[in-house]
Amino acid sequence: MANDKENQWSRVNRNHNMYDGYPAQEPPRPPRTNASKGSGPRKPKKNKKKRHWILAIFLWLLTLGFIAGLAGAALFFTYANDAPNITESDLASENSTQLLDSNGNVFWSVATQDRDYANSNEIPKQLKQAVVSIEDRRFYKHHGVDPIRIAGAAISNIKGSSLGMQGGSTLTQQLVKLSVFSTSTADQTFKRKAQEAWLALRVEKNFSKNQILTFYMNKVYMGHGVYGMKTASEYFYGKALTDLSLPQLALLAGMPQSPTYYDPYLKDTTAAKERRDTVLKAMATYGAITSKQATEAMKVSISDGLQDLNAKAEAANSTRKVTDAYASSVIAEAKKLGYDTTKSGLKIYTNMDSNLQQSLYDNANDGSVTFSSDNLQIGATMTDPNSGHVVAQIGGRNVNTLQALNRATSKNRSSGSSIKPLLDYGPAIEYLNWPTYRTVEDKKYKYVGTNTSVYDWDKKYMGNITMRTALTQSRNIPAAKTLEEVGGSNAEKFVNGLGITTNSTPGGSMAIGIDVSTEQEAAAFGAVANGGTYYKPTYISKVVTADGTTHNYKSTGTRAMKTSTAFMLTDMMKGVIKPNATAADAAITGLYQAGKSGLVAYADDAGMPDQAISDAWFTGYTRSYALSVWTGFDVPSENYIPWTEQDLPAKYYAKVMAAAMQNKSNTDWTAPDTVTTKVKGNIVEYEVKDASWSNGGLPSVTSITQSGETPSEAGITTNSASTGSTTGNN
């Protein structure tokens, strides 16, 4: 530091000496030339008036600036007066974000390690110098707010170079932000900045620089669920801070800016090394180390001394597997809302039902549902169809690595036939007014504009059948032909309204499968369950920030389809769960429910056995819950689901839903006044009231037995419903 003072004063002395030889006086004015006296009359001075205007404008601007300054100062002190209180406890507290379930119980903390608080004498002087060098070189000169730093940061950002110090906030301001403020981008307002500056001044008044630096180094997030540099030293290196080398200390000092990006455990450690070296250069510039020391330290491998974290992570995560996928989705949603969950010290209240979450986990892992292989995976999402709340979610089974792949929200697997009610038959009812008994063809067919034939699993054809039969038996050709009649633009509009996007205008093979997630299907089928209102799936109900401010969140429903469409789809999908239908294993005795299964086969040239399955789905619902289940292998080219295990998702659904509905009201759906009942072939069918529709010139047929309710099952008499045959309004 003595050298620094000498250098600073030497620069001042040089500047002083530079001007010593020049007296502080104005240079003499040159004499007026005779030419100015000229012959002839003098010209009038036209710019005298102009100077008056310039002076007037200047005075006005000066006055306005003064008024603006007063107003700004008044506003600043108004905001400062409303600033939250900040205590030593706030400054010293751990900053870990907590996730709470729907009953207010903590189920996840971003911190996976208990923080070990470091006293000032446990922190090496070199680490303190490293932090100050990279984060706030004028730390010991300012009083909490540094106008010079703010100006310098602005200039450096414009130039694009500042040794990693583009921010204008001092270390004290950063400490205040981490202690009592939200880091949500929505909260980055002038009021917040004013309060942050005011509190920084108060902190500087009440605490020493050494205390402030100690608070900061114990509070920052270091990655891997670790808070504080002492804890990070023990977790990463197995050593005390005082035992670390210069390059190791420099790495720790540089990590808080972006612990995920500068993680030295990544496969590509380029960013971590660049950050560490930036700290070393800053230390040399600051005078904490010599240029030679910095150069030697930069030669050391970034992985020098790092411990293997696998065993530590497994021990820390053993109790977190149950809620891993849900926590992952909550954190992702929080980030979309603008929160930094690693820095904010947030309390995030979620919609998770811990009992349902445990049920999803247990049924996938404890053997109550049989999985033929340990590598056979699952993804499942359960929602409340009346609010869009995600109440439970599981992203895999036999999970070893947490916060990794969440199969429940992955959108890279085909839905198979589970998409048919949403992409094909829903739009047909919504836009073409098709009744549940509308005739469709199950005959030889090729996708329009191609030479590709469409087949079902049995390579057979059922001929003319009703839409109800086609859906409950999951026939592919009627679905493809229905999408063709509906039109790709109508189908796209319909599924978009249900939160499902497609890469192109639907057509061809998309009729029997598109890439989708269980989260999307649970929300979309939930809209059918509640009568046609789509709620975006949401995990967070409210967020309480470090300053005690509460932010509430709620999904606002939007009308996605007519009530008649929703009811008729539900009525048809009830038949999917009946005996001899495609998802009989999802049946729960006495429970009113509906749903749709989906299977994805391999291409003929995939080299898999006949009827091998790559993806199996079931999405079902009651009036209280919607549950979407996917099963398959992460690498389907290496393994497959045997045909005999196609009902695994339905069996899993039945286990979970049966338990979930034990304390819920079991109520059936009632037909809205926009539909008309018609009994055909002892099956209760429905049509849109007073709507015009076409049977496509096809003969009238009846639905197969058990594909729908009989009049007695539906609780109606033939007298209260029209009977007979019809060919539609052709």
UniProtKB/TrEMBL annotation:
Reaction catalysis annotation: Preferential cleavage: (Ac)2-L-Lys-D-Ala-|-D-Ala. Also transpeptidation of peptidyl-alanyl moieties that are N-acyl substituents of D-alanine; [GlcNAc-(1->4)-Mur2Ac(oyl-L-Ala-gamma-D-Glu-L-Lys-D-Ala-D-Ala)](n)-di-trans,octa-cis-undecaprenyl diphosphate + beta-D-GlcNAc-(1->4)-Mur2Ac(oyl-L-Ala-gamma-D-Glu-L-Lys-D-Ala-D-Ala)-di-trans,octa-cis-undecaprenyl diphosphate = [GlcNAc-(1->4)-Mur2Ac(oyl-L-Ala-gamma-D-Glu-L-Lys-D-Ala-D-Ala)](n+1)-di-trans,octa-cis-undecaprenyl diphosphate + di-trans,octa-cis-undecaprenyl diphosphate + H(+)
UniProt domain Penicillin-binding protein transpeptidase: residue ranges: 379-624
GO CC terms in record: outer membrane-bounded periplasmic space
One GO BP annotation of this record: proteolysis
Superkingdom: Bacteria
Family to which the UniProt record says this protein belongs: In the N-terminal section; belongs to the glycosyltransferase 51 family.
Protein known as: Penicillin-binding protein
